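Section 3.1: Structural characterization of target chains.
Under the original work plan, the team committed to producing a structural model for every single-chain target entering the pipeline before any wet-lab resources were allocated. The record below documents one such target. The sequence was received from the expression subgroup and is listed exactly as submitted; it comprises 74 residues.
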Amino acid sequence: MKIKKSCPKCESPDIIRIPGTIEPFGLGNNIKAGATILSSVKVTRFLCAGCGFTEEWVDDVNGISRLKKKYRAS
């Protein structure tokens, strides 16, 4: 949906972009990449307003690198 601007399930072009947030108490749409909330990486959601299908994307290349270091198996 991020790239083609349409839903892969129902082909609707009615896509809503919901930016990721980092909020206290584990709220928001993010992935923890370190010991504190400040290390979190924002996750952007794309929602099809036609059928409700969602996708999530990490847009920050540096964030992807930090997540690889933390979660990738050796």
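The mean pLDDT is 92.
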